[in-house]
Structures are given as structure tokens and as C-alpha cells.
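Re: your question from the hallway

Yes, I did run it. Sequences:
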Amino acid sequence: LAQLYGPLNQLSYIYRSVNQSLVDTEKLLSLLNEPTEVNDKENAPDLIVNDGEIEFDDVHFSYDGRSPALDGVSFKVPKGASVALVGESGSGKSTILRLLYRFYDLGEGQGRILIDGQDIRDVTQKSLRQAIGVVPQDPVLFNSSIGYNIGYGKFGATPEEIEAAARSAQMHERIISFPDGYNTKVGERGVRLSGGEKQRVAIARTLLKNPPILLLDEATSALDTSTEKDIQKALQNLVKGRSSLSIAHRLSTIASADLILVLKDGHIVEQGNFKELIQRDGLFASMWADQVSNDDPAVSISGQSIKK
Ligand code: ATP
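Structure:
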């Protein structure tokens, strides 16, 4: 039965190309409120990723042309570095991810976003999105087998590759506990997966896609300790060797991030690693103190629970 994945993948290819933009949008549902039209320039070249270095250079952005969502944001994600975005609700975290995925283009005078020195407005959206893997808070799964849902990350993925990705995403043991293993149907008409399991499926899918750049929107919901550990391990395997930007709620992500950007009202108000920010005793340290005194240790720093 496992041999079915290859042909299934191929059969789905046409469907997939036709629906690619729709599915990309779906994948980003938790990042996105409304899809917008961004057009490639005439004869735009493809993005060429060597190191996967990301740079935001004095980025200003407003959804309504009046109130700024980002107000002069500059930072760099060096090759392979993990950057965690923290800040209260509405501070601009998702806007940073949406702009990097090019749901909106920056206008004249609104700054630049560069990947390996190339302005993302100048390259094709397709090549940009091929280079970026997205793990949303609440991943969308197809009403199909769990193997298909993982294999979707790579055209023609073999059952061995699918299983390796599932193992790396800490999902293999769970999958083989299902009645039909990798052929078990998931989604509305099949086995219902928990939020943590869906996120691990999305991680496995992204491992197969193997993009140099990652955007992660961590779930805010509290998870039990063993699920938390599994997700932590899966995320570690995923971010290794890739440049990543995470909307971070988990202590593990925040503590191990190479750089934490603390956002407030569309500005970066503090940046540094965990130790530096605690020593600085500013906004991050007070957010942290709030969380530590919070009754619910499973979620560490959540934008939703940070006091204004
Ligand atoms: P949360 O933690 O709640 O997801 P966030 O830090 O990700 O918040 P953003 O979603 O980036 O914040 O929002 C930044 C600002 O832009 C907020 O003032 C928000 O109200 C505004 N905003 C976000 N999306 C839209 C939109 N589609 N249309 C209009 N304004 C928006």
C-alpha cells in the first residue's frame, strides 16, 4: 500500500499546480487576513538563494494608509540563524512574515526587504515562495491519507522519504498507531488530529520541501508536556541549518533563538539573545516576569497574554 504514495503524488500534480496559489494562501491562513494581488515585474528573474540571509531595511508598512503596522523596522537574519519575534498582540509580528512572503509589496519610500541581496519585489513570487517553508499555527490538512499530507511537501516523494520526514517531525510513532498507518485518512472525514499533531504534519511536510528559509507561527495553546517535547524536537530538526523567523510563544524557541526581536507598536524596541534581554531588564524582562508568575507554564511568552 505504501507504493501508492508515488503515483498518488503524481496524479495530484496537476491539481496541485493549478491550486498552488490557493493552497499557499490556505497554508498561511493564520498569518493572513486577506489575500492581496502582488504582480511580478515584467521579465522578473527568479530568486537565487545561496545563504538564505534576510534583511529588512527601514521597512514602513500600513494596511489602511494611515495607521502604521510597521514603522521603520530594520534587522538581519544571518545565514542559518533563528530569529524569534515577540511582542503584544498587534505589535506587527505577523506583518513581518506576510511581507516576507510577499502578500503585499512595499511602495516607494517604504524600505526594502532583501534575500541574499535581492529585493523581493524584483524576483518572481513563485521562486520566492519555493524558497520559503511556512508552518502556520493551525495547518490545513487535505481530506486524504496522512502519507499524502506529508508527501505533498515534495513532488514524487517516496514512502521512505515520507517516513523519514515523519520520524524527524516526531510523528512516525503516532502514525503507525493509526489503523491503516500512513494510509489512514485524516481531516474531516478521517482521523481527527490534535493541534500539536497537525503542526507536526506541517513540520514533516516542510522538511520534505527542504526550503532554505522558514516562517513559523507557533501555536499559542497550552500543550501537555510530552506533546510540547515532541514539537520542540521536531522544530529543532526543522530549523537546523535554515534561516528562520518565528512568531514565538514557546520558551524553548525563545531561549534558543540566536536573536529575539521585541516589537511594540510596529517598532523593534529591544533585540538580543535571551540572556542579554533578561539582563537588560526592559520590556522583554517584564514580559518574561509576567509569564513566570502566570499559572500556566506550558505557554511561555504569548503575545496574547502580555500586558500593555
Ligand atoms: P497578534 O499577536 O495578535 O497576531 P501581531 O503582532 O502579529 O498580532 P499584526 O497582525 O502584524 O500584529 O498587526 C499589526 C497592526 O496591523 C495591528 O495594528 C493590526 O490591527 C493591523 N492589521 C493587521 N492585519 C490587518 C489587515 N488585514 N487590515 C488592516 N489592519 C491590519
